[in-house]
C-alpha cells in the first residue's frame, strides 16, 4: 500500500536524514478522542475506562499516514501550510498492525449487560484504536499501530520511532507548493537511497486539489 506522511520541511528533512518516523501515543495527538471515543454517561464507567486507557497509552505507539497526497486541507494542517513535504512510502499490508480509520458520527457504546462481556469488550477494544469522529475524514488516515517495544527507542526525550525498512520503504518525496526545499538538498540527504522520486506539487487550476507540477529527479 502506498501511503503518505505530511511534515514541515524541518521534520521531513530530519526524517529523511535519520531514516525514521516519530511514533505517537494516544495522549500526545491533537484529537482528545483518540482511544476515548466511547459513550461514558456514568462516572464509574469513566473511571473504569481510564483504567483501560492509561496502560494502553503507556505501552502502545502508532504512526499516522494518509492514503493520498492530493488534499489541500491535509497539506495546510500537517505540512506547514504547503511549505513542507509529503513522504510517500510503500508499507507492508499487515492486518495485525496496519489499520484504516473508521469515521463515525457518534461515540461507540460499551457492551450491554445482555451481551457476552468478554467477547464484546474485546471486539470494542479492536474498534477503538481505529475509530475517529467523522469530521476527521478528510485525513483519509491509515495507521501503523504496535506495542512500543516494536519501535526504536526511547531516545533521550522519551520518543519512539518507526525506522525505514522492508515494512516501510520510501518511494516518493513531494515538495509542497509553497516550499523552499530544493531537489538538490533532498538528494544530498537521500544519498544512497534507491528508487525514490522527487516531485514538486502545485495547486490545481480547475479543482480543489494538489497535483504534480513536474518530476525533478529520481534516485537510481
Provide key terms for this protein.
220 residues, alpha+beta, three-stranded antiparallel β-sheet, 5 helices, 12 strands, 24% helix, globular
Verbal overview:
It is a single chain. With 220 residues, the protein is α+β, with helices and mostly antiparallel strands. Helix content is 24%, strand content 30%. The chain has helices at 9-18, 43-59, 72-78, 117-127, 183-189; strands at 2-7, 20-22, 60-66, 85-91, 98-100, 102-104, 131-133, 141-147, 161-163, 168-175, 197-203, 210-218. It has a five-stranded mixed β-sheet with strand order 1-4-10-11-12. The protein has a three-stranded antiparallel β-sheet with strand order 3-8-5. Strands 2-9 form a two-stranded antiparallel ribbon. The longest helix is centred in the N-terminal third of the chain and has 17 residues, at 43-59. The radius of gyration is 19 Å and the shape is globular. The protein starts with a strand and ends with a strand. Mean pLDDT is 93; it is low at 215-220.
Q: SSE string, helix = H, strand = E?
A: EHEHEHEEEHEEEEHEE
Distance between the termini: 22 Å
The overall number of domains is 1
**Low-confidence parts, pLDDT < 50 over ≥5 residues?**
215-220
Instruction: Return the structural class.
Output: alpha+beta
User: Considering DSSP H and I runs of 4 or more, what fraction of the residues is helical?
Assistant: 10-25%
Beta-strand content bin: 25-35%
Q: What value does the Rg take, in angstroms?
A: 19 Å
- Average pLDDT, all residues: 93
- For the report, how would you describe the main beta sheet? 5 strands, mixed
Q: Order the strands across the largest sheet as they lie in space.
A: 1-4-10-11-12
- The geometry reads as globular
* Strand element count: 12
Number of helical runs?
5
Amino acid at each position: 500500500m502506498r501511503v503518505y506522511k505530511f511534515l514541515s520541511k524541518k521534520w521531513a528533512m530530519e526524517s529523511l536524514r535519520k531514516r525514521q518516523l516519530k511514533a505517537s501515543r494516544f495522549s500526545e495527538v491533537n484529537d482528545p478522542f483518540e482511544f476515548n471515543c466511547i459513550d461514558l454517561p456514568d462516572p464509574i464507567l469513566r473511571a473504569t475506562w481510564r483504567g483501560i486507557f492509561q496502560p494502553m497509552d503507556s505501552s502502545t505507539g502508532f504512526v499516522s499516514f494518509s492514503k493520498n497526497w492530493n488534499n489541500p486541507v491535509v497539506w495546510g494542517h500537517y505540512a506547514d501550510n504547503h511549505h513542507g513535504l509529503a513522504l510517500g512510502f510503500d508499507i507492508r499490508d499487515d492486518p495485525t498492525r496496519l489499520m484504516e480509520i473508521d469515521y463515525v458520527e457518534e461515540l461507540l457504546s460499551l457492551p450491554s449487560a445482555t451481551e457476552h462481556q468478554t467477547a464484546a469488550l474485546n471486539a470494542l477494544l479492536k474498534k477503538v484504536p481505529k475509530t475517529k469522529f467523522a469530521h476527521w475524514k478528510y485525513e483519509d488516515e491509515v495507521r501503523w499501530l504496535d506495542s512500543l517495544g516494536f519501535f526504536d527507542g526511547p531516545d533521550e526525550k522519551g520518543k519512539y520511532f518507526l525506522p525505514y525498512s522492508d515494512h516501510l520503504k520510501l518511494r516518493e518525496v513531494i515538495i509542497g507548493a509553497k516550499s523552499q526545499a530544493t531537489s538538490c538538498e533532498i538528494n544530498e540527504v537521500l544519498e544512497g537511497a534507491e528508487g525514490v522520486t522527487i516531485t514538486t506539487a502545485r495547486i490545481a487550476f480547475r479543482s480543489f486539489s494538489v497535483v504534480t507540477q513536474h518530476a525533478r529527479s529520481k534516485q537510481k
